Amino acid sequence: MEIKLIQENLLLISNDWANHYKMLPKEENEGIVYLYIAESNYSSDNAEELELLLGKKIELIPLPEPIIERELSIHYRKDRETNTNQSFRPDKNDFLEQLFKEAKALKSSDIHLEVYEKNARIRFRIDGLLIERYKVESDNYLELVNKIKIKAKLNITEKRLPQDGRITTNEVDIRVSILPTLFGEKIVLRLLGQDAANINLTSLGMKQEELDAYLEAVKKPNGIILISGPTGSGKTTTLYATLKLLNDNKRNIVTVEDPIEYTLKGINQVQLKEDIGLSFATALKSFLRQDPDIIMLGEIRDPETAMMAIRASLTGHLVLSTIHTNSAIGTISRLIDMGIPPYLIAETLNLSVAQRLVRKLCDDCKQEVASNPKDFPVNFKLPYPIQKQYKAIGCNKCFHTGYRGRTAIYEVVNVNYNTAVAIKNNTINEINANNKDYKSLANKAFDILSNGETALEEIYAILLNI
Q: Is the pTM of this model over 0.85?
Protein backbone atom coordinates (compact mmCIF):
# COMPACT_ATOMS: atom_id res chain seq x y z
CA MET A 1 0.00 0.00 0.00
CA GLU A 2 1.30 3.46 -0.94
CA ILE A 3 0.35 6.72 0.78
CA LYS A 4 1.07 10.16 -0.60
CA LEU A 5 2.07 12.88 1.85
CA ILE A 6 1.95 16.57 0.96
CA GLN A 7 4.99 18.55 2.04
CA GLU A 8 2.97 21.42 3.50
CA ASN A 9 1.15 19.03 5.84
CA LEU A 10 4.42 17.71 7.28
CA LEU A 11 4.65 20.97 9.22
CA LEU A 12 1.54 20.04 11.24
CA ILE A 13 3.47 17.79 13.64
CA SER A 14 7.01 17.78 15.01
CA ASN A 15 9.69 15.17 14.49
CA ASP A 16 9.34 14.08 18.12
CA TRP A 17 5.59 13.59 17.95
CA ALA A 18 5.68 11.76 14.62
CA ASN A 19 8.18 9.18 15.88
CA HIS A 20 6.71 8.87 19.39
CA TYR A 21 3.16 8.14 18.25
CA LYS A 22 4.21 6.54 14.94
CA MET A 23 1.93 8.81 13.00
CA LEU A 24 1.90 10.88 9.81
CA PRO A 25 -0.18 13.93 8.84
CA LYS A 26 -2.64 13.26 6.02
CA GLU A 27 -4.35 16.67 5.84
CA GLU A 28 -6.12 19.42 7.73
CA ASN A 29 -9.68 20.08 6.55
CA GLU A 30 -12.29 22.37 8.17
CA GLY A 31 -10.42 22.45 11.48
CA ILE A 32 -9.93 18.68 11.67
CA VAL A 33 -6.43 17.19 11.45
CA TYR A 34 -6.42 13.73 9.85
CA LEU A 35 -3.49 11.58 10.94
CA TYR A 36 -2.27 8.18 9.75
CA ILE A 37 -1.20 6.15 12.79
CA ALA A 38 0.29 2.70 13.34
CA GLU A 39 -2.40 0.10 14.12
CA SER A 40 -0.71 -0.71 17.45
CA ASN A 41 -1.14 2.93 18.58
CA TYR A 42 -4.72 3.38 17.33
CA SER A 43 -6.81 4.20 20.41
CA SER A 44 -9.24 6.80 21.75
CA ASP A 45 -6.73 7.65 24.52
CA ASN A 46 -4.07 8.63 21.94
CA ALA A 47 -6.67 10.62 20.01
CA GLU A 48 -7.58 12.62 23.12
CA GLU A 49 -3.91 13.12 23.98
CA LEU A 50 -3.14 14.42 20.49
CA GLU A 51 -6.11 16.79 20.57
CA LEU A 52 -4.64 18.34 23.73
CA LEU A 53 -1.16 18.60 22.16
CA LEU A 54 -2.31 20.10 18.85
CA GLY A 55 -5.25 22.07 20.19
CA LYS A 56 -7.38 20.80 17.30
CA LYS A 57 -9.92 18.04 16.61
CA ILE A 58 -8.20 14.81 15.54
CA GLU A 59 -9.26 11.92 13.31
CA LEU A 60 -6.95 8.88 13.33
CA ILE A 61 -6.59 6.54 10.36
CA PRO A 62 -4.92 3.20 11.27
CA LEU A 63 -2.31 1.74 8.90
CA PRO A 64 0.07 -1.25 9.10
CA GLU A 65 3.19 -0.35 11.07
CA PRO A 66 5.71 -1.16 8.26
CA ILE A 67 4.07 1.47 6.05
CA ILE A 68 4.23 4.09 8.82
CA GLU A 69 7.86 3.19 9.63
CA ARG A 70 8.89 3.53 5.99
CA GLU A 71 7.37 6.98 5.62
CA LEU A 72 8.71 8.15 8.99
CA SER A 73 12.24 7.23 7.93
CA ILE A 74 11.85 9.38 4.82
CA HIS A 75 9.97 12.43 6.15
CA TYR A 76 10.85 12.51 9.86
CA ARG A 77 14.42 11.29 9.95
CA LYS A 78 16.33 10.69 13.16
CA ASP A 79 19.89 11.83 13.86
CA ARG A 80 22.18 9.09 12.57
CA GLU A 81 24.89 9.48 15.17
CA THR A 82 22.91 9.71 18.39
CA ASN A 83 19.76 7.90 17.20
CA THR A 84 17.69 10.39 19.19
CA ASN A 85 14.77 12.38 17.95
CA GLN A 86 15.26 16.03 17.13
CA SER A 87 12.26 18.34 17.18
CA PHE A 88 12.26 20.62 14.15
CA ARG A 89 8.75 21.93 13.98
CA PRO A 90 9.10 25.09 11.88
CA ASP A 91 7.79 28.27 13.41
CA LYS A 92 7.36 31.52 11.52
CA ASN A 93 9.65 33.32 13.93
CA ASP A 94 12.57 30.90 14.00
CA PHE A 95 12.11 28.74 10.92
CA LEU A 96 15.53 29.71 9.57
CA GLU A 97 17.33 28.74 12.78
CA GLN A 98 15.42 25.45 12.88
CA LEU A 99 16.38 24.84 9.25
CA PHE A 100 20.08 25.26 10.06
CA LYS A 101 19.82 22.92 13.07
CA GLU A 102 17.95 20.26 11.11
CA ALA A 103 20.47 20.38 8.26
CA LYS A 104 23.35 19.99 10.69
CA ALA A 105 21.68 17.09 12.52
CA LEU A 106 21.06 15.29 9.22
CA LYS A 107 24.69 15.93 8.17
CA SER A 108 23.57 17.90 5.14
CA SER A 109 26.26 19.71 3.15
CA ASP A 110 23.92 22.19 1.39
CA ILE A 111 20.43 23.65 1.69
CA HIS A 112 18.71 24.59 -1.60
CA LEU A 113 15.85 27.12 -1.57
CA GLU A 114 14.14 27.25 -4.97
CA VAL A 115 11.16 29.27 -6.13
CA TYR A 116 8.75 28.44 -8.97
CA GLU A 117 5.57 29.96 -10.38
CA LYS A 118 3.14 28.95 -7.60
CA ASN A 119 5.28 27.89 -4.66
CA ALA A 120 8.82 27.17 -3.48
CA ARG A 121 10.65 24.18 -2.06
CA ILE A 122 13.56 23.51 0.28
CA ARG A 123 15.90 20.60 -0.35
CA PHE A 124 18.84 19.20 1.64
CA ARG A 125 21.89 17.57 0.07
CA ILE A 126 22.58 14.44 2.13
CA ASP A 127 25.30 11.97 1.14
CA GLY A 128 25.61 13.76 -2.19
CA LEU A 129 21.91 13.59 -3.16
CA LEU A 130 19.19 16.25 -2.88
CA ILE A 131 16.16 15.33 -0.76
CA GLU A 132 13.06 17.54 -0.62
CA ARG A 133 12.15 18.57 2.93
CA TYR A 134 9.62 21.42 2.74
CA LYS A 135 7.23 23.28 0.47
CA VAL A 136 6.87 27.02 1.11
CA GLU A 137 4.20 29.46 -0.06
CA SER A 138 5.50 32.20 -2.38
CA ASP A 139 4.76 35.02 0.08
CA ASN A 140 6.53 33.23 2.92
CA TYR A 141 9.44 32.49 0.62
CA LEU A 142 10.05 36.20 -0.04
CA GLU A 143 10.14 36.81 3.70
CA LEU A 144 12.60 33.93 4.12
CA VAL A 145 14.88 35.32 1.37
CA ASN A 146 14.97 38.73 3.06
CA LYS A 147 15.83 37.17 6.43
CA ILE A 148 18.73 35.29 4.83
CA LYS A 149 19.97 38.46 3.11
CA ILE A 150 19.86 40.42 6.36
CA LYS A 151 21.77 37.73 8.26
CA ALA A 152 24.35 37.52 5.45
CA LYS A 153 24.65 41.34 5.32
CA LEU A 154 23.52 41.47 1.69
CA ASN A 155 21.47 44.08 -0.20
CA ILE A 156 17.78 43.14 0.25
CA THR A 157 16.68 45.52 -2.52
CA GLU A 158 18.96 43.97 -5.16
CA LYS A 159 17.03 41.21 -6.93
CA ARG A 160 18.58 41.35 -10.41
CA LEU A 161 22.22 40.38 -9.71
CA PRO A 162 23.82 37.36 -8.03
CA GLN A 163 25.07 37.96 -4.48
CA ASP A 164 27.41 36.04 -2.17
CA GLY A 165 27.69 36.31 1.58
CA ARG A 166 28.26 34.43 4.82
CA ILE A 167 26.23 33.71 7.96
CA THR A 168 27.95 32.83 11.22
CA THR A 169 26.04 31.07 13.98
CA ASN A 170 27.13 29.45 17.24
CA GLU A 171 27.02 25.98 15.68
CA VAL A 172 27.93 26.37 12.02
CA ASP A 173 29.23 28.79 9.40
CA ILE A 174 27.14 29.11 6.26
CA ARG A 175 28.18 30.35 2.81
CA VAL A 176 25.30 32.06 1.01
CA SER A 177 24.92 32.15 -2.78
CA ILE A 178 21.91 33.96 -4.31
CA LEU A 179 21.01 33.65 -7.99
CA PRO A 180 18.17 35.50 -9.80
CA THR A 181 15.89 33.06 -11.69
CA LEU A 182 12.68 33.33 -13.72
CA PHE A 183 10.31 33.39 -10.72
CA GLY A 184 12.58 34.88 -8.06
CA GLU A 185 15.86 34.30 -6.28
CA LYS A 186 17.33 30.84 -5.76
CA ILE A 187 19.53 30.42 -2.69
CA VAL A 188 22.11 27.77 -1.89
CA LEU A 189 23.43 27.63 1.66
CA ARG A 190 26.69 25.69 2.06
CA LEU A 191 27.25 24.46 5.63
CA LEU A 192 30.89 24.84 6.64
CA GLY A 193 32.68 23.36 9.63
CA GLN A 194 34.06 25.89 12.11
CA ASP A 195 37.19 24.02 13.11
CA ALA A 196 39.27 21.11 11.90
CA ALA A 197 39.79 19.46 15.29
CA ASN A 198 38.23 16.15 14.20
CA ILE A 199 39.92 15.92 10.79
CA ASN A 200 42.69 13.36 10.50
CA LEU A 201 44.52 11.99 7.45
CA THR A 202 44.37 8.43 8.75
CA SER A 203 40.55 8.52 8.90
CA LEU A 204 39.90 9.79 5.36
CA GLY A 205 39.88 6.35 3.73
CA MET A 206 43.28 6.12 2.05
CA LYS A 207 44.75 2.64 1.68
CA GLN A 208 47.99 2.16 3.59
CA GLU A 209 50.19 2.33 0.49
CA GLU A 210 48.42 5.51 -0.66
CA LEU A 211 48.82 7.07 2.77
CA ASP A 212 52.52 6.18 2.87
CA ALA A 213 53.10 7.82 -0.53
CA TYR A 214 51.13 10.89 0.52
CA LEU A 215 52.96 11.31 3.83
CA GLU A 216 56.33 10.96 2.10
CA ALA A 217 55.38 13.72 -0.34
CA VAL A 218 54.15 16.19 2.31
CA LYS A 219 57.30 15.75 4.39
CA LYS A 220 59.42 17.20 1.58
CA PRO A 221 60.49 20.81 2.28
CA ASN A 222 59.41 22.07 -1.14
CA GLY A 223 57.40 21.10 -4.22
CA ILE A 224 53.73 20.97 -5.15
CA ILE A 225 50.97 18.59 -4.06
CA LEU A 226 47.78 18.80 -6.13
CA ILE A 227 44.42 17.24 -5.30
CA SER A 228 41.77 16.99 -8.00
CA GLY A 229 38.11 16.07 -8.09
CA PRO A 230 34.66 17.58 -8.66
CA THR A 231 32.90 19.84 -6.17
CA GLY A 232 31.94 17.92 -3.03
CA SER A 233 34.52 15.15 -3.43
CA GLY A 234 36.38 15.98 -0.21
CA LYS A 235 39.42 17.81 -1.64
CA THR A 236 39.33 20.61 0.92
CA THR A 237 38.97 18.15 3.80
CA THR A 238 42.11 16.33 2.62
CA LEU A 239 43.99 19.65 2.44
CA TYR A 240 42.94 20.68 5.96
CA ALA A 241 43.90 17.27 7.35
CA THR A 242 47.33 17.76 5.74
CA LEU A 243 47.73 21.26 7.21
CA LYS A 244 46.74 19.95 10.63
CA LEU A 245 49.51 17.34 10.37
CA LEU A 246 52.12 19.90 9.27
CA ASN A 247 51.09 22.62 11.72
CA ASP A 248 53.67 23.19 14.46
CA ASN A 249 55.56 26.08 16.07
CA LYS A 250 58.51 25.73 13.70
CA ARG A 251 56.58 26.44 10.48
CA ASN A 252 54.90 29.51 9.03
CA ILE A 253 51.79 28.33 7.17
CA VAL A 254 49.62 30.69 5.09
CA THR A 255 46.47 29.91 3.12
CA VAL A 256 44.18 31.75 0.71
CA GLU A 257 40.73 30.20 0.38
CA ASP A 258 37.30 30.79 -1.10
CA PRO A 259 35.65 30.32 1.33
CA ILE A 260 37.52 29.54 4.57
CA GLU A 261 35.71 26.29 5.41
CA TYR A 262 37.52 25.47 8.66
CA THR A 263 39.56 27.51 11.10
CA LEU A 264 42.94 26.17 12.19
CA LYS A 265 44.74 27.63 15.18
CA GLY A 266 48.30 28.65 14.36
CA ILE A 267 47.67 29.05 10.62
CA ASN A 268 47.30 32.40 8.83
CA GLN A 269 44.16 32.11 6.71
CA VAL A 270 43.16 34.70 4.08
CA GLN A 271 39.69 34.99 2.52
CA LEU A 272 39.69 35.50 -1.25
CA LYS A 273 38.08 38.81 -2.35
CA GLU A 274 38.28 39.07 -6.11
CA ASP A 275 35.93 42.07 -6.23
CA ILE A 276 38.68 44.20 -4.67
CA GLY A 277 41.54 42.52 -6.51
CA LEU A 278 42.55 39.90 -3.93
CA SER A 279 42.83 36.88 -6.24
CA PHE A 280 44.77 33.66 -5.72
CA ALA A 281 47.66 35.01 -7.80
CA THR A 282 47.72 38.37 -5.97
CA ALA A 283 47.64 36.69 -2.56
CA LEU A 284 50.41 34.31 -3.59
CA LYS A 285 52.67 37.21 -4.56
CA SER A 286 52.13 38.73 -1.12
CA PHE A 287 52.67 35.40 0.60
CA LEU A 288 56.20 35.12 -0.79
CA ARG A 289 57.11 38.28 1.15
CA GLN A 290 55.71 36.78 4.38
CA ASP A 291 58.54 34.24 4.79
CA PRO A 292 56.25 31.18 4.54
CA ASP A 293 57.28 27.54 4.80
CA ILE A 294 54.00 26.09 3.54
CA ILE A 295 51.43 27.73 1.25
CA MET A 296 47.93 26.45 0.64
CA LEU A 297 45.96 27.78 -2.32
CA GLY A 298 42.27 26.95 -2.37
CA GLU A 299 42.33 26.26 -6.11
CA ILE A 300 44.51 26.66 -9.19
CA ARG A 301 42.12 28.17 -11.73
CA ASP A 302 44.30 29.91 -14.31
CA PRO A 303 47.79 29.89 -15.88
CA GLU A 304 48.96 32.86 -13.77
CA THR A 305 48.17 31.12 -10.48
CA ALA A 306 49.70 27.86 -11.74
CA MET A 307 52.93 29.61 -12.73
CA MET A 308 53.12 31.46 -9.42
CA ALA A 309 52.69 28.16 -7.56
CA ILE A 310 55.52 26.63 -9.62
CA ARG A 311 57.81 29.58 -8.81
CA ALA A 312 56.96 29.38 -5.13
CA SER A 313 57.88 25.70 -5.02
CA LEU A 314 61.14 26.36 -6.89
CA THR A 315 62.16 28.90 -4.24
CA GLY A 316 61.89 26.39 -1.40
CA HIS A 317 58.23 26.38 -0.39
CA LEU A 318 55.80 23.48 -0.08
CA VAL A 319 52.62 24.36 -2.00
CA LEU A 320 49.29 22.55 -1.54
CA SER A 321 46.33 23.18 -3.81
CA THR A 322 43.35 21.72 -5.65
CA ILE A 323 42.56 21.62 -9.35
CA HIS A 324 39.52 20.49 -11.35
CA THR A 325 40.45 17.45 -13.46
CA ASN A 326 39.05 13.94 -13.92
CA SER A 327 42.14 12.04 -12.79
CA ALA A 328 45.56 12.37 -11.17
CA ILE A 329 47.27 11.94 -14.54
CA GLY A 330 44.81 14.41 -16.06
CA THR A 331 46.16 17.03 -13.63
CA ILE A 332 49.54 16.86 -15.37
CA SER A 333 47.91 17.28 -18.79
CA ARG A 334 45.91 20.23 -17.44
CA LEU A 335 49.06 22.02 -16.26
CA ILE A 336 50.65 21.49 -19.67
CA ASP A 337 47.50 22.86 -21.35
CA MET A 338 47.84 25.94 -19.11
CA GLY A 339 51.20 26.58 -20.69
CA ILE A 340 53.44 25.32 -17.88
CA PRO A 341 56.64 23.84 -19.40
CA PRO A 342 56.75 20.06 -18.82
CA TYR A 343 60.27 20.23 -17.36
CA LEU A 344 59.04 22.60 -14.62
CA ILE A 345 56.16 20.26 -13.78
CA ALA A 346 58.56 17.32 -13.55
CA GLU A 347 60.88 19.37 -11.34
CA THR A 348 58.28 20.64 -8.87
CA LEU A 349 55.31 18.24 -8.71
CA ASN A 350 55.70 15.87 -5.74
CA LEU A 351 52.36 14.12 -5.92
CA SER A 352 49.10 14.23 -7.85
CA VAL A 353 45.97 12.88 -6.18
CA ALA A 354 42.44 12.44 -7.53
CA GLN A 355 39.59 11.54 -5.21
CA ARG A 356 35.88 10.79 -5.21
CA LEU A 357 33.27 10.14 -2.55
CA VAL A 358 31.16 7.02 -3.15
CA ARG A 359 27.99 6.11 -1.26
CA LYS A 360 28.15 2.80 0.58
CA LEU A 361 25.33 0.28 0.38
CA CYS A 362 23.24 -0.30 3.48
CA ASP A 363 24.34 -3.64 4.94
CA ASP A 364 20.85 -4.31 6.27
CA CYS A 365 19.02 -4.30 2.95
CA LYS A 366 21.48 -4.63 0.04
CA GLN A 367 20.58 -7.46 -2.31
CA GLU A 368 22.94 -9.77 -4.17
CA VAL A 369 22.53 -9.99 -7.96
CA ALA A 370 24.43 -11.74 -10.71
CA SER A 371 27.14 -9.68 -12.38
CA ASN A 372 26.81 -9.16 -16.12
CA PRO A 373 29.76 -7.64 -18.05
CA LYS A 374 27.25 -6.03 -20.45
CA ASP A 375 26.02 -3.79 -17.63
CA PHE A 376 29.36 -1.97 -17.50
CA PRO A 377 30.34 0.96 -19.79
CA VAL A 378 31.43 -0.20 -23.24
CA ASN A 379 34.95 1.25 -22.95
CA PHE A 380 35.61 -0.10 -19.46
CA LYS A 381 37.70 -3.25 -19.39
CA LEU A 382 37.03 -5.34 -16.29
CA PRO A 383 40.32 -5.76 -14.33
CA TYR A 384 39.14 -9.20 -13.23
CA PRO A 385 35.89 -11.18 -13.53
CA ILE A 386 33.30 -11.06 -10.75
CA GLN A 387 30.34 -13.40 -10.37
CA LYS A 388 28.15 -11.26 -8.14
CA GLN A 389 27.51 -7.69 -7.07
CA TYR A 390 24.91 -5.91 -4.96
CA LYS A 391 22.13 -3.41 -5.59
CA ALA A 392 20.41 -0.84 -3.37
CA ILE A 393 16.98 -1.73 -1.97
CA GLY A 394 16.07 0.59 0.92
CA CYS A 395 14.93 0.08 4.51
CA ASN A 396 14.20 2.05 7.68
CA LYS A 397 17.83 2.10 8.76
CA CYS A 398 18.98 3.83 5.55
CA PHE A 399 15.84 6.00 5.19
CA HIS A 400 14.84 3.93 2.15
CA THR A 401 17.74 5.23 0.04
CA GLY A 402 19.59 1.91 -0.07
CA TYR A 403 22.80 3.66 1.04
CA ARG A 404 24.33 4.51 4.39
CA GLY A 405 27.42 6.72 4.62
CA ARG A 406 30.17 7.34 2.08
CA THR A 407 33.73 6.19 1.47
CA ALA A 408 36.55 7.91 -0.40
CA ILE A 409 38.58 6.41 -3.22
CA TYR A 410 41.92 7.84 -4.27
CA GLU A 411 44.10 7.73 -7.36
CA VAL A 412 47.68 8.59 -6.41
CA VAL A 413 50.52 9.39 -8.83
CA ASN A 414 53.85 9.70 -7.06
CA VAL A 415 56.27 11.63 -9.27
CA ASN A 416 59.30 9.31 -9.17
CA TYR A 417 62.19 9.25 -11.69
CA ASN A 418 60.26 7.35 -14.40
CA THR A 419 57.20 9.57 -14.02
CA ALA A 420 59.35 12.72 -14.21
CA VAL A 421 60.95 11.47 -17.44
CA ALA A 422 57.50 10.78 -18.94
CA ILE A 423 56.38 14.31 -18.01
CA LYS A 424 59.50 15.93 -19.51
CA ASN A 425 59.04 13.96 -22.72
CA ASN A 426 55.32 14.79 -22.71
CA THR A 427 54.42 11.09 -22.86
CA ILE A 428 51.83 11.20 -20.11
CA ASN A 429 50.11 7.99 -21.22
CA GLU A 430 53.25 6.03 -20.31
CA ILE A 431 52.98 6.96 -16.62
CA ASN A 432 50.51 4.13 -16.08
CA ALA A 433 52.87 1.59 -17.62
CA ASN A 434 55.91 2.90 -15.71
CA ASN A 435 54.26 2.61 -12.30
CA LYS A 436 53.34 -0.93 -11.33
CA ASP A 437 51.54 0.28 -8.20
CA TYR A 438 49.32 2.73 -10.10
CA LYS A 439 45.58 2.11 -10.03
CA SER A 440 43.07 4.37 -11.74
CA LEU A 441 39.95 5.71 -10.03
CA ALA A 442 37.89 3.42 -12.25
CA ASN A 443 39.77 0.35 -11.03
CA LYS A 444 39.52 1.53 -7.40
CA ALA A 445 35.77 1.95 -7.85
CA PHE A 446 35.55 -1.54 -9.37
CA ASP A 447 37.36 -2.93 -6.31
CA ILE A 448 34.74 -1.61 -3.88
CA LEU A 449 31.99 -2.86 -6.19
CA SER A 450 33.46 -6.37 -6.13
CA ASN A 451 33.74 -6.16 -2.30
CA GLY A 452 30.03 -5.45 -2.06
CA GLU A 453 30.52 -1.96 -0.60
CA THR A 454 28.64 -0.10 -3.34
CA ALA A 455 26.39 -0.60 -6.36
CA LEU A 456 27.17 -0.27 -10.06
CA GLU A 457 24.75 2.68 -10.45
CA GLU A 458 26.80 4.64 -7.90
CA ILE A 459 30.17 4.22 -9.65
CA TYR A 460 29.00 4.09 -13.29
CA ALA A 461 30.05 7.71 -13.96
CA ILE A 462 33.53 7.01 -12.53
CA LEU A 463 33.93 3.97 -14.81
CA LEU A 464 33.20 6.21 -17.81
CA ASN A 465 36.25 8.39 -17.05
CA ILE A 466 38.93 5.95 -18.15
A: no
